[in-house]
Design brief:
mainly beta; five-stranded antiparallel sheet; 5 strands
């Protein structure tokens, strides 16, 4: 289950974390996440600022 949480309580930047069901722990995927979407088996998120934005994608079925 994807979740985004603030990297620091006073920061506007967020960290994308995935929960590993097998190991029962959260794994940090990315820092400084702006937007995050999930549809079907694909998760994608943006990083960067207002002038430069990069998008990353992850096909969730590839995770083992």
């Amino acid at each position: 289950m994807p979740a985004s949480t603030p990297a620091h309580p006073y920061s506007t930047a967020t960290q994308l974390r995935l929960y590993d069901l097998t190991r029962r722990r959260a794994v940090a995927m990315a820092d400084g996440v702006g937007l995050m979407f999930c549809r079907g088996d694909v998760l994608w998120w943006s990083t960067g600022g207002r002038t430069v934005t990069a998008w990353q994608t992850l096909y969730l079925r590839t995770l083992t």
